[in-house]
């Protein structure tokens, strides 16, 4: 799943669409419908998707996953947020570059820091110092991951009111 972006993308679509059919999942994908059916079957078998209807067409829901994995001597968690970020790799150059430089475990670590950043309990300098990476790179990945975290974890407590901030920016632009 982690190595196969196609599966991560399919999981993400199921997560975002909330109980789609295979046909709904296939819309806009480059894979054939047959491949999507096979991938959905595989994701059901490994427990990442679950069939939520008994009648045809079947609907599927993304399972909440939180697995601890050890790789290269480091422990990290595979979460829906990580899977969404992995799927974003194809369309997001910053996430793709971060993955190339730091791997999946590095991205998982960045998500933990970015979650704290989203909750206003962390800043880029702390992660940069602790992970020994440039502050600019940290700030960039925080910006990319913050949007993913807010979408994938809507219940996360934040001290930021993004709508209020957007309105304030719009007001300043109108001046």
TrEMBL record:
Domain DUF7437: 89-153
The protein, known as: Sugar-specific transcriptional regulator TrmB
Top-rank taxon, per record: Archaea
Species the sequence originates in: Haloquadratum walsbyi J07HQW2
UniProt lineage: Archaea, Methanobacteriati, Methanobacteriota, Stenosarchaea group, Halobacteria
